TrEMBL record:
<comment type="similarity">
    <text>Belongs to the dTDP-4-dehydrorhamnose reductase family.</text>
</comment>
<keyword id="KW-0560">Oxidoreductase</keyword>
<dbReference type="InterPro" id="IPR036291">
    <property type="entry name" value="NAD(P)-bd_dom_sf"/>
</dbReference>
<dbReference type="Pfam" id="PF04321">
    <property type="entry name" value="RmlD_sub_bind"/>
</dbReference>
<dbReference type="InterPro" id="IPR005913">
    <property type="entry name" value="dTDP_dehydrorham_reduct"/>
</dbReference>
<dbReference type="InterPro" id="IPR029903">
    <property type="entry name" value="RmlD-like-bd"/>
</dbReference>
<feature type="domain" description="RmlD-like substrate binding">
    <location>
        <begin position="3"/>
        <end position="291"/>
    </location>
</feature>
<protein>
    <recommendedName>
        <fullName>dTDP-4-dehydrorhamnose reductase</fullName>
        <ecNumber>1.1.1.133</ecNumber>
    </recommendedName>
</protein>
<comment type="pathway">
    <text>Carbohydrate biosynthesis; dTDP-L-rhamnose biosynthesis.</text>
</comment>
<keyword id="KW-0521">NADP</keyword>
<comment type="function">
    <text>Catalyzes the reduction of dTDP-6-deoxy-L-lyxo-4-hexulose to yield dTDP-L-rhamnose.</text>
</comment>
Amino acid sequence: MRMRLMLLGGGNALGQALIRLGAEEDIGFLAPRPPEQGWDVPSLTQLLDDTRPDAVINLAYYFDWFQAEETSTERLASQERAVERLAELCQHHQMLLLQPSSYRVFDGSRATAYSEKEEQVPLGLRGQALWRMEQSVRAVCPRHVLLRFGWLMDESPGGLLDRFLRRAEKDDALFAADDRRGNPTPVDDAARVLIAVLKQLDCQAPLWGTYHYGGHEATTTLALGQALLGEARVYRPTLLDSVTPQAHAARPDAADEPQHAVLACKKIFHTFGIKPRAWRAGLPALLDRYYRHV
């Protein structure tokens, strides 16, 4: 890798997966420790003025965007300002910016898969904030890759998987929507995609723009929950036997979570040659890592 890579958010689950996979391929990252209050406009300005990498992978707010049960308006507003400043710095110093985004920028009213060209009408606070961040990156920093991920799954404490499995240990019943669809995406697979994109950008390929990636085989949250329980029982035989189906409209997060969140991944395949991997194949490693740290 000829480019010097700056990774913001190397301590979170996706950052750690990226560092692990990079080490296997002899790809290193500058991964500075964030200041106590987290990355903000002044600290990002100082960091990039001092280090001048060739590319920035912005996973600084990964947990809030992809794993947290809820995130405050104030935190998201601060992150929006930081992302806009990051885009300005990347443009000023002629750095590449690799910025994650999410299926949450869509409202979920489309029953067929969303392509990159579909209109974005986000539902909740997170989706709206991510949509505005996408817009500011496009407007300010032409040399960017915006990568929208499907349902990201990782082992982080307090994350989606952790909350689900803890309920499966303690609750009498678990409910999941049988009419809500998306692309489960294990964090290791997401890291594989980021590495593949970086390799091609390292070859000076001007492949800027917005791309979708999600694990192969769209499914429902109900089927995903059943698959997770099946794998997790290897470690916790006393987990609940099954997940109870419930309508999307009856779920407590129905106002914020798109009912249909399936992403079409043709563009990333035709541009970068990245094929979606079956999400089920990634569950054993994910659950193993989770139960080793729980």
